[in-house]
Amino acid sequence: MRKMFFAVALFLAAAGMVSAQNIWTPPQPKRIVLKNGLTILLLENHQLPVISAEVMVKAGSVTDPAGYAGLANFTIEMLAKGTDSRSALDIADNFDFVGAQFAVKCDYDAAFISLTTLAKDFNRTVPVLFELLTKPAFDSLETGRLKAELLSAIEAKGDRPNTQSAEAFNLMLFKDHPYAHPGMGDAESVSRISRQDLAGYHQKYYAPNNCIISLVGDFKSSQIKRILEQNLGNWAARNMPQSILPEIPPIGQPRALLINRQINQAYINLGFLGPKRSDPDYQAIRVMNYILGGGGFVSRLVKNIRMAQGLAYDVDSYYDPRSDFGPYILSVQTKCASADTAIKSLIAEMRLIQSQPVSEEELKEAQDYIRGSYPFRFETSGQTARQFLYLELYDLGADYFRQDMQKTLQVTQADVMAAAKKYLKPDNFLLAMVTDTSQTKLNIPGLKIEKQ
């Protein structure tokens, strides 16, 4: 699927469908703020009789209290498990009866609720959405059921070596920062979460002045504004806690954690701190990363480590910018005995892109892909509504998407090299690897190795 996406985007760019002379123009929503501080983003789109509502609460896992990792995720998952007047079955029946699509998700920086429904059914479904947002019951029986499901999911993902490697890397990089723990939490923390903890967390963070609702679809903005005022206008604003995040400690020296498992593949995550989402170098970093390892089969890591050396099937680089600094990771899966060679190749490619300008062809290919793929972020009403929320979450500004494309096309070879020099750390990285340590020998100068 990913290869197909790359191919389609490159084809569109090559075919001139998103040419420099006819750049696709991203939409801009109408922004309204109610008296209680609730922010509303509206975009009318009458092409299909569908309305998508995306709700964002600034209550991601970064707000989990110490010792209660997973509380933010547990809370958002509980919203559809019953309200003061509706059972979980009633809520599910309300959405299923009209074929509405409903989902919740908890990220590091925010929690999200998604609802897509036919326009004719909006007045039936949206009051339920507002009710579960503001009046969840946190029923004891439903809390126990969901806790069992979460603990089962935590146990299952612990068996996956790629997940184990990624979570070990996060813990090494972020240490005492809330980004260090998995959003789902761990078995110990989730086990101690009570109904009272869930209700208290909801009371603390779920308020109109900490919430943004984005709606896209077949409606009239004046009518939607009236519906929101009627349903949520009396939702009382509250003082939000001012959380101060701890400093992320410097790496100090290259370190590796080798986690022993009886497997024949090594799952490697090598990385360091990446940029914040608001970083002014964002466009240059994105172009640089596409060339290095984010561009699939046209990236340098794939061409070298997979195609030329035949060391790995999966190899890439990616970064996850957040409100605070996110991780920048080079990831590879290879035979245990090939781990040393693969890691040295990752380091060599970082040094190469820092020391020599990328070619004009590489630069153009990256820019064409980014430009060609941009409209796919807005392919559905739900995707469009979610994109608008990110503008608010990261305070990017209403005109950000247009500026983002323009700045991407203005990135130069010198900008790419400068971004590589600033953000890639070939001499000062962290490495987490799940492998059979009896088959894995590392010989990397200056690397401090710990085995687990």
Give a short synopsis of this structure.
This protein is of the alpha+beta class and 452 residues long. It has helices at 2-14, 71-78, 88-97, 122-134, 140-157, 161-174, 187-192, 195-205, 221-232, 282-294, 300-308, 339-355, 360-373, 381-393, 400-409, 413-423; strands spanning 30-33, 39-44, 50-57, 101-106, 111-118, 211-217, 255-260, 265-273, 312-319, 327-335, 430-435, 448-451.
Description:
There is one protein chain. This protein has 452 residues and is of the alpha+beta class. It is built from 16 helices and twelve strands. It folds into two domains: 204 residues, Cytochrome Bc1 Complex, Chain A, domain 1, CATH 3.30.830; 196 residues, 2-Layer Sandwich (Cytochrome Bc1 Complex, Chain A, domain 1). Strand 1 and strand 2 form a beta hairpin. It is globular.
How much β-strand is present in the residues? Answer: 15-25%
As a percent range, the share of helical residues equals 40-55%
CATH topology tier name of the largest domain: Cytochrome Bc1 Complex, Chain A, domain 1
Whole-angstrom Rg: 23 Å
CATH class of the largest domain: Alpha Beta
Mean pLDDT comes to 92
Q: Name the CATH superfamily assignment of the largest domain.
A: Metalloenzyme, LuxS/M16 peptidase-like
- How can the largest sheet be summarized? 6 strands, mixed
Alpha-beta content class: alpha+beta
SSE series:
HEEEHHEEHHHHHEHEEHHEEHHHHHEE
Separation, N- and C-terminal Cα atoms: 35 Å
Uncertain runs: 1-21
Q: If helices are DSSP runs of H or I spanning 4 or more residues, what is the number of helices? A: 16
Within the largest sheet, what's the order of strands? 1-2-6-3-5-4
CATH architecture label of the largest domain? 2-Layer Sandwich
**Overall geometric form:** globular
Annotation, overall tally of beta strands:
12
Number of domains: 2
